[in-house]
Amino acid sequence: MKRLAFALAAVAALFGSSAARGDAPAPPAHAAHPEARGAVVIWPTLTPAGDSPEGVPLHRPATVAEKKLADAAQELDATLRDGVEDLGFTLFVADAGPTAGHMRDADLIERAAHSGGGGGDETGTWVVSPRIELGGADGFVLRIVVVAPNSHELRVRVDTAAAESVPSRGLVMMRDMLSPAAADIAATEREREQLNRQPVGYGIMGPLRSQGRAILALNSGLFGGFVGYSMQQASGSSDPRLLYPLLAIGAGVGIGAALLVADEWDVTTGDAWFLTAGGFWGSAAGLFIADGRHITPLTDRFAWGVVGGFGGVAVSSIALARFKMDEGDAAIAGSGGALGLGFGGLAELVYRGRYTNITPYTGFGYGSAIGLVGASALATQVDIAPSRMLLLDAGVGAGALVGAAAASPIVFQNVNPSKARVWLASTMAGGLAGGAVTWLLTRSISVSKSEAFTFGSPTAGVIGSSATPTGSVPAYGVAWGGAF
After folding, report:
1. What pLDDT is stored for residue 368 in this prediction?
2. pLDDT number for residue 481
3. Which end of the chain has the least Cβ crowding within 10 Å, N or C?
4. What is the pLDDT of residue 37?
5. Is there a contact between 325 and 311 (Cβ–Cβ < 8 Å)?
6. Domain spans of the chain, in order of start
7. What pairing do the DSSP bridges indicate for beta strands 39-42 and 90-91?
8. 298: Cβ–Cβ under 8 A, 6 or more apart, which residues?
9. Residue 435: partners with Cβ closer than 8 Å, 6 or more residues away
10. What's the rounded Cα separation, in Å, for the pair 82 and 10?
């Protein structure tokens, strides 16, 4: 009879509370939100609720010393266990609740990460922990703490109630926290946590698939048009009726291939720009090498550019097959080709011993190819911000200007091959020095991708100790620590 009275009081409170606040009546159990259903563990009511002075540990009310609290807690436990099944949940009755010393917030979260049976799977379960303590005027302070499955968030509701309405008020509070809206919040919290565990987190919204689709399609279309133009030039025909169809077909094939690749794989903007850098500098290297080797007829040089472009794309694809590239890695590849172009040209001029009335096409070509391959390999090992890469490029340029200015008196008059080589070598050395200084000044921005391989750093002073009959004696020396 006593439990029946509590059940009737709880039902009256459910509808009465909704009518008093103007809310719609609670939905029936079969209409519960899909996310809201599942296993529920209801811990026995604990005291204090949280407003008592600090230092009072959470515990179950004692039957003798806290008889009033114990009676109210017993009634509240029975009502919550009966009412949770009416809300569409499955009550796991075998859970006896926490033991002494395991009743804190972290214990609630840990319990919510396990199944209803307490197993090790990741299905999780709802955990409800009611709290109660004495209030003023023969009333009680109620606190309901709820943790959603696999959540790290505690939702708490606090209210006061008279002694006779403790069970019904506690049931209403639990119903509101296990409502479909609360379940939606819990699902959103789980989605946020799953996304934050991924390498790239975008808050509550997941990253869109193949964000680099447009970039890849545009540049592939341009490369396809270049291939079509090269085919027209290689044919020896200058008829526009052949040129424009080949341009259209080449661009169409390039765009179509890019869209197919973007649908098959997740192509980020960094991946797209990295592939673009490979194709661009590969084509440039092929054209420059063909010009330096004086390939004839002139129209055949475009074929070298096409072959170089496909070679550059192949190099970039090999790197992408093993690593995920970002915008910084694409900047490394682009800068590698550009710096290789400059240093390759300077190297050829040094070899020839002159710098006027000559264009070092061969040095441009081989330098671009070597710079692209070296930068692509470097991008697989180093993380770098695009802004830092721009600073490095600026440092190399500024250093080259300083080196050229410092050695400029050598070539003011009576220029000969030896003086020209010294001035060109000074320019190259200045560029390398400027890049090295910029790298050191901005080194805190970069993070190594291969943390297991570090050259370490030297240390000096006390590097250990030696045990003696009178105690430990410090050992002085020099050491080098690192991982290889």
Report:
1. 93
2. 65
3. N
4. 58
5. no
6. 2-196, 268-448
7. parallel
8. none
9. 392, 395, 396, 399
10. 10
- How far apart CA 335 and CA 344 sit, in angstroms, is 14
The 10 Å Cβ neighbour count of residue 201 is 14
In this structure, what is the dihedral angle of CA atoms 375, 376, 377, 382, given to the nearest 10 degrees?
A: 80
**Identity of the residue numbered 275:** L
The two three-digit tokens of residue 464, written as one number: 């250990």
pLDDT at residue 405 in the model:
92
- The stretches in the chain having pLDDT less than 50 are 1-36, 200-204, 445-448, 450-453, 484
Structure-block tokens of residue 47: 């005291």
Yes or no: say if 214 and 243 are a contact pair by the CB < 8 Å rule: no
Alpha carbon 350 to chain centroid, angstroms? 46
pTM of the full structure: 0.49
Tell how strand 90-91 and strand 126-134 pair up.
unpaired
Tens-digit pLDDT profile for residues 407-446: 888 877 787 888 888 999 999 999 999 999 998 888 764 4
pLDDT of residue 6: 43
Q: How many CB atoms lie within 10 A of CB 159?
A: 13
Q: End-to-end CA distance of the chain, in Å?
A: 76
Give the pair of three-digit tokens for residue 167. 């069970």
Q: Which of 448, 449, 474, 451 is nearest to 463 (CA)?
A: 474
Q: Cα–Cα distance between 482 and 484 in angstroms, integer?
A: 7
CA distance 75 to 5: 11
3-state SS, one letter per residue, for the chain: CHHHHHHHHHHHHHHHHHHHHCCCCCCCHHHCCHHHCCEEEECCCEECCCCCCCCCCCECCCCCCCHHHHHHHHHHHHHHHHHHHHCCCEECCCCCCCCCCCCCHHHHHHHHCCCCCCCCCCCCCEEEEEEEEECCCCEEEEEEEEECCCCCCEEEEEEEEEHHHHHHHHHHHHHHHCCHHHHHHHHHHHHHHHHHCCCCCCCCCCCCCCCCHHHHHHHHHHHHHHHHHHHHHHCCCCCHHHHHHHHHHHHHHHHHHHHHHHHHCCCCHHHHHHHHHHHHHHHHHHHHHHHHCCCCCHHHHHHHHHHHHHHHHHHHHHHHHHCCCCHHHHHHHHHHHHHHHHHHHHHHHHHHCCCCCCCCHHHHHHHHHHHHHHHHHHHCCEECCHHHHHHHHHHHHHHHHHHHHHHHHHHCCCCCHHHHHHHHHHHHHHHHHHHHHHHHHCHHHCEECCCCCEEEEEEEEEEEEEEECCEEEEEEEEEEEEEC
Q: Which residues have C-beta within 8 Å of that of residue 8, sequence separation ≥ 6?
A: none
Structure tokens of 308? 């170089």
Count other C-beta atoms under 10 Å from residue 111's C-beta: 21
Position 394 scores a pLDDT of: 93
Q: How far apart are CA 254 and CA 251, in angstroms?
A: 5
Of 336, 330, 282, the closest CA to residue 309 belongs to 282
Tokens of 368: 């671009």
